[in-house]
User: Fold this.
Amino acid sequence: MRFDVITIFPEYLAPLELSLMGKARESGKVDLHLTNLRDFAFDRHKTVDDTPYGGGAGMVMKPEPWGLALDQALANSPASAREPLLIVPSPAGAVFNQQMAYDLAEEDHIVFAPARYEGIDERVLDWAETEFRVLPVSIGDYVLYGGEVAVMVMIEAITRLIPGAMGNPESLAEESHTGGLLEYPVYTKPATWRDEEVPPVLLSGNHGAIARWRRDEQIKRTFARRPDMVKAYPAENWDKKDRKLLQELHTEQKAAKKAEREAELSSEG
Assistant:
């Protein structure tokens, strides 16, 4: 997998040298190239932005530096790669999630174009459609100073799905958002810490009971924190014990809401 990142702050991506991400680069699982957009500016100040046509606040990133930088990324695309994918971090893009990370991990060459200021001149993206597959992507409904943080999030999420890039591949099968539910809680030694005990089932050695407990905890946690994921979970994937637990959780939820309403009416009276 080759990543190209075009940015005015290459140093912003220094954390990608660390930990398992750094090891993935050292082992050749990923090939990361950082390009300074200012290298493609022609004036002595290395200017890459200008005032917007039509007026308005902020500055807009100029088209020519971006065009030249993207030309270079195209020229360096691996011969075996299909048309490169250009990802543009944007609050207006498709929302990045685990499934998208899996899909992107199948790519050969991804170019990232993190913008600053008010964004990139729209003509750059229009032109890019003729040379790249262009995909605006959002990592959430909020706005950052620039797109570099979003790029780091995506690169790390994608890289860890590339075969051989994880320290323990089994971790991928049990983590949150893999399989449609959140991850179960985890514990380690000591068995008692500040009067808090590890759930006894985890000390039992009964692997069947442990698996059932973990499944139940996944369901409880997802029901409480991400009910949208419970609704979206394929009905055929719930087993008999899952359905019984879900019914119990719904009953408890209704009872809690009823008690809350009664308490409100009582306080008003």
Observations:
- The mean pLDDT is 93.
